[in-house]
């Protein structure tokens, strides 16, 4: 039983878990060229903002080793070209651009190409390690909040395979397992793309965490019938007032938690906060293709040509969020203090975000 | 554009819509023998309590014509044998046993075999017509309640193809269409078996009603984003206090309706009430096989052997139900009067149930 990882750097080699094949096939693909890294990100073999950033960072460092020049300026030029190419693999992935940006800045001060190459790998490793530390810290805070609670529900996959290790919403279960604390996790399947059924169930099974799959429609009945004590989910973006955009279906769960009087937790790194937006109404909600809902793989479910509404995310109002668990500590959106004040007041554990 | 029917009796022939093939294939199968009717019910080609009862009634009447005796006692004996065989096709279907029981009683007074054969067909026709009238009446009452409302959400298929015609929860949309009143219906796909995506979407499209498909997980966001004004669903069983068992996912919707302050309606014939049960906690919830959730058709979604919780129904507490719409009128479970008192107080429209 081990916590599965999505990006592995070992013996100077980069391997990524092809998440499109899960759970039927567990395949780690070795990426040797910049083009392969670009393709892995573009084709969604790697998913989860932190995991994408980490894979791209290693990819850039890997490709840099192939540039056979001793001219540091020319080297920087090549790396910047590679960087632009990688960022274009998924233009909306903020974390990807951020990670690549860190690597590019890092070699601004390099004196030799040799040094630059080493520093790129160092920086990629740093980004990875920082993310693992942040997830671990989120897990610590979540474990405290979950205290005596055992039965917890989640949706989508805010897990180890979306990050360096541990994940965000799934971090307390992994960390708990390491410490002999057992949870009973209920994973919502997460229509339309089944990230819960395909990824979260697999990941927790791999780690030896007790997990039960339900359809999203069973959430209310399950909370009552199984005595669910808390719900914990990840986040895509959190605005200044605490409104949180996350995978479609999250808002359902928040309203159910409210109805049943159980806590509803968001687990997310500080980097998820977008304080430039005041409330969730400013967050644009991506609408995706009808086929994602009307068909499953090659299997048509609804009549061909059916009109479908397919929003990818929803926004949970802050008032339904008991707490936001970050690597720096726990933020309570309904406290008197603003979120911004709480963000800067909580004692840092030393992780850079 | 016509309202699709599930059981058709025409020119002394019985045809049923094979609902397992929907929406890809629209196939009406002519049933000529008792064995074929048994098989159609057993294999779930026909679904929906009223539709099953109607198909069985016609099936019994059809088979009776083949009994070539002139001895009325012997004829009754044969019919009773057939009746027992048909009832066994789906032992838990209360409506099936009830319909068959009506036919069997009907020939108690028949003087000749010829008369008996005619009366069986007459009774089957009567059961069918009464069900259509009841559904139509439910539609009338629902149209009144929905008044100015246009955007309505539903789950599963409490539709024309589950009844003689019109359905229960879908009756106002069909009846509205006949009268030029347009609705915008949002159909939840209804995991795990997709009755919403497969049946409701198809049925409403056939009838020319504007319908949009969403996953169950999109309900909360859709209520807000699209301005849903009411939710209307069917029922499997309603207890004396108004608690209502219906397809899994119904309770989710009831709690969301409550959170958004929009009405939540149950549409069901009076026969759905089980006044012998005081509250919903007495209703046993059937749990079904893990494969229904973990795989879709032949396509495996979750890892093989995944632990699944798969309740087929949930129970919505009466306090979340704005009104129960029956063929006799509208019952409000949260009024001072008991449901039983309301059931007998509402002016009957003459339908026998």
From TrEMBL, chains A, B:
SUPFAM superfamilies registered for this protein in UniProt: NagB/RpiA/CoA transferase-like
Q: Could you name the active-site residues?
A: 236
What does the record give as EC number? 5.3.1.23
The alphabetized UniProt keywords are: Amino-acid biosynthesis, Isomerase, Methionine biosynthesis
**Amino acids binding substrate:** 47-49, 90, 195, 246-247
Reaction(s) this enzyme catalyzes, per UniProt: 5-(methylsulfanyl)-alpha-D-ribose 1-phosphate = 5-(methylsulfanyl)-D-ribulose 1-phosphate
The UniProt site entry described as Transition state stabilizer is assigned to 156
Entry's transmembrane regions? none
Q: Which GO terms describe its molecular function?
A: S-methyl-5-thioribose-1-phosphate isomerase activity
The record's annotation in Pfam families points to:
IF-2B (PF01008)
Tell me its family.
Belongs to the EIF-2B alpha/beta/delta subunits family. MtnA subfamily.
Its function, per the record, reads: Catalyzes the interconversion of methylthioribose-1-phosphate (MTR-1-P) into methylthioribulose-1-phosphate (MTRu-1-P).
| The protein's name in its UniProt record | Methylthioribose-1-phosphate isomerase
Species for this entry: Planococcus dechangensis
Q: What is the organism lineage in this UniProt record?
A: Bacteria, Bacillati, Bacillota, Bacilli, Bacillales
